[in-house]
Each structure stands twice: as C-alpha cells, then as structure tokens.
User: Which sequence fits this backbone?
C-alpha cells in the first residue's frame, strides 16, 4: 500500500497570487500539487490552462504537477499540458474518445497517466483499463467546483477498485478528490485510498504544518 499523500488543489489557492499558494505547499515539503483544468463543457466552470502550469514552472516550482483534465475532449490537450510541465495527466472515462490510445500518448510524452470517474460512473467503466494507469481518481463530489460536501456513497467504489489492485498485483495510486478533510480522508483511507486531494480544507487550514502532519499519519 502506498503511504498516504496529501495533494493540495491549486483551484482553492489565491488566483491573484498562485505563486504564493504554490510556495505554501513547497514550504511544507509536500511533493505533489493537484491542478484542476476545466473547459466549461465537461464541467460548468472554467479554471486555468497549460500556460498557468508553464508559468509556475518558469517561476521555479519543482512540484509534481498532478493534472486533472475535466475536458470534453481531453485527447486534444495532452501535448500542451505535457509541454507545460505536467508530471501526471488524468483523463475522465465519461466522454467518448479512445481512452487507451490517449493514456498511451500521455506515457509516450514522458508523463504518468491516470483515469478519473465521476460519482455517477460505476467502477466497472474502467475495469479493462486499470492495468494501464499510474493512478485512478475517484471523484467524491460532482466535479466543477471546490467546497462541496463529500459523497460517502463513493466508499464502496474505492473498496472495489482497491480489491482489483490487490487481486491483480497492480501498483496504481488510488486518489480521492472533493470534500476531503482529515475526517473524510480517514474514511477513504480505510476504503483503500492513498492520495488525498484537498482544496478548501488545505488552503483554509490555520495551522498548515499540523494539517499536513495529520495526513502523513492517516
Ligand atoms: C472539483 C475539483 C477538485 C476541487 C476540490 O471539481 O476536481 O480538485 O479543487 O476542492 P475541495 O477540496 O474544496 O472539495
Ligand atoms: Zn481535481
């Protein structure tokens, strides 16, 4: 089992000073940063694009950019995000495109790859592809906005995917995203999750070192 990893979501950072939000993560020696990319089609919101990632790289960030594409046509945007400095690119299973070919292209460009499921999508939708990925992301809210309540009904889905991982000897990370704080992360950890995206709870935490230390001991 992977050690628990707290993965702050830049979406909840200060969009007028993203560099400072990134520094808050780096100061804690957390290795990952979750970057939410929204297109106003697949989700009813817009966030930022590859230029933002590239600018954070130019500003010196060495964080592992865990890039969550919430796009109707993710296969059209793999190259720009790989070039911009993404380390891992996750694509949703819901839109119709060649998922396996897109995962292969992500890898060919030197990035790790992941698959994402919306709350309404059953685990079975990705079963045939789990051997191809470095990460499976189970959304614990309907994607589009930070600050929504955690969906406890996603726990059985985590258990199902974790059992495939164990039975098949696979090593992918199992990530959760949406409404994650220490209490909901603990429930997800018990169901097999190891990678915890936290937006609102991280950036609102008054004592970030204590917040990060709690996650390290999940
Ligand atoms: C939701 C995004 C999340 C979001 C989580 O559409 O995918 O990454 O930033 O935010 P919180 O942690 O506030 O629920
Ligand atoms: Zn996300």
Assistant:
């Amino acid at each position: 089992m992977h050690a628990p990893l707290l993965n702050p979501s830049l979406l909840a950072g200060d969009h007028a000073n993203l560099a400072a939000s990134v520094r808050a993560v780096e100061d804690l020696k957390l290795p990952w940063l979750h970057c939410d990319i929204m297109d106003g089609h697949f989700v009813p919101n817009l966030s930022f694009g590859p230029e933002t990632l590239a600018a954070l790289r130019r500003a010196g960030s060495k964080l592992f950019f865990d890039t969550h594409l919430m796009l109707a046509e993710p296969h059209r945007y793999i190259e720009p995000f790989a070039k911009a400095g993404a380390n891992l690119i996750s694509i949703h299973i819901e839109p119709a495109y060649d998922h396996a070919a897109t995962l292969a292209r992500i890898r060919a460009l030197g990035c790790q790859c992941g698959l994402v499921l919306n709350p309404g999508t059953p685990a079975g939708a990705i079963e045939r592809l789990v051997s191809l990925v470095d990460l499976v992301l189970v959304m614990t809210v309907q994607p589009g906005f930070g600050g929504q309540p955690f969906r406890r009904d996603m726990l059985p889905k985590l258990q199902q995917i974790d059992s495939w991982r164990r039975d098949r000897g696979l090593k992918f990370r199992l990530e959760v995203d949406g409404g994650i704080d220490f209490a909901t992360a603990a429930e997800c950890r018990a169901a097999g999750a190891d990678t915890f995206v936290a937006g609102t709870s991280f950036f609102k935490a008054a004592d970030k070192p204590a917040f990060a230390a709690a996650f390290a001991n999940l």
